[in-house]
Amino acid sequence: MKKIVVFLFTVFLLSCSNSNRLEKLPPEKQEKIIKENFNDLTKKFFILIDDKIKEKDRADLESNYINLKNQIRKIKLVGTKEHVNFLLHYSKLIDIKIQYLKDLK
């Protein structure tokens, strides 16, 4: 039951951030949304690896990470150096999670 609630919450957050068009928001808001989404996905990631891994859950989580990565890619790498570094940092973290989930297949 807990996994379902976490999954639904994550999907809700991703859908809300998609409707806000992340690339059109100011950098501070982008960073906040990216951090929140990444943290929610990471919580789900640890719940997934704590129990017996179900392929459907693993695939859903991988898809959610890929969606977040695609949202980050849509953001142009302009602005302050700190913001660009933030985007690159989270992009790398997401790549690591995606690769780990692919290795779990």
Spell the H/E element sequence: HHHH
- List unreliable stretches of 5+ residues: none
Number of helices: 4
Counted up, domains total 1
What is the global morphology? elongated
Estimate percent helicity: over 70%
Task: Estimate the mean pLDDT confidence.
Answer: 84
The description of the largest β-sheet is: none
Primary descriptors:
105 residues, mainly alpha, 0% strand, elongated
Map the helices and strands:
Layout lengths: L1 H18 L7 H24 L4 H20 L6 H23 L2
Helix pairs in contact: 1-2, 1-3, 2-3, 2-4, 3-4
Folded structure, characterized:
- The protein is mostly helical and 105 residues long.
- It has one domain.
- The protein is built from 4 helices and no strands.
- Helix 1 (2-19) runs antiparallel to helix 2, helix 2 (27-50) packs antiparallel against helix 3 and helix 3 packs antiparallel against helix 4.
- 18% of the residues are buried.
- The model has no long low-confidence stretch (mean pLDDT 84).
